[in-house]
Amino acid sequence: MTSSDLWDEDTAARYDDVSAEMFAPDVLDPAVDFLARLAGDGPALEFAIGTGRVAVPLTARGVRVSGIELSQPMVDRLRRKVSADEVPVAVGDMASTTVPGAFSLVYVVWNSIGNLRTQDEQVRCFQNAARHLAPGGRFVIELWVPGIRRFPPGQAGVPFAVTDQHVGFDTFDMVTQQGTSHHYRRLGDGSARYGFSNFRYIWPAECDLMARLAGLEFEQRVADWHGAAFTSDSESHVSVWRKPMEATDS
Length: 250
Description:
Layout: H1 9-18, H2 25-39, E1 44-47, H3 55-60, E2 65-69, H4 72-78, E3 89-91, E4 103-108, H5 119-132, E5 133-144, E6 157-162, E7 166-173, E8 178-186, E9 192-200, H6 204-213, E10 217-222, E11 236-242
Parallel strand pairs: 1-2, 1-4, 2-3, 4-5
Antiparallel strand pairs: 5-11, 6-7, 7-8, 8-9, 10-11
Helix pairs in contact: 1-4
Domain Methyltransferase: 45-137
Organism: Catellatospora methionotrophica
InterPro entries: Methyltransf_25, SAM-dependent_MTases_sf
């Protein structure tokens, strides 16, 4: 059993529309550029591949991409874009599901590693990435930095989106590092739809320790896909760890 929320048919059907801003070229192209450079001539594996927001354009760049995805309805949406021959996907959780082959790149984007809601599963996710990497291959995650510094005493949540179409905020349990993202979206008829997703937040230093436990070496951390410097004020990070050339899988 996985602790992740399971995205159903209704959620999968709406995913591309409600996430439209993440498909915008100024958001997506730098991520694809970054990942394509790291993949080089080798194959890539995406954890939580979803509907193929990143995998489809990365495939168009000539990178051979495979995926792991927990939600069959999300995979069904992906199949409307590319075939199983073009982008093979195993249905399962990213902490334990395996696929054949050794990869030059394993990646998980847009905070998706937080869908694993226990520290043990997150550690196993790093180990699963290392298991799939060829020596010298890299594991990349894109992850936000929890906005806990913005909490005044007594505040229960932190907003991350406030527009006339979408209001979103996160609530946190500081003891367990559990959180919930709450979304209120305005529909065309003027009504509102509420949705939520649960996560466990991870600090950058905690990620580094998980990587070390998996036998990976830290390579770089930047604030975004453009390569901006990561500082104490950064609200997100793209982090890269490398599997040593001399590494062997047990």
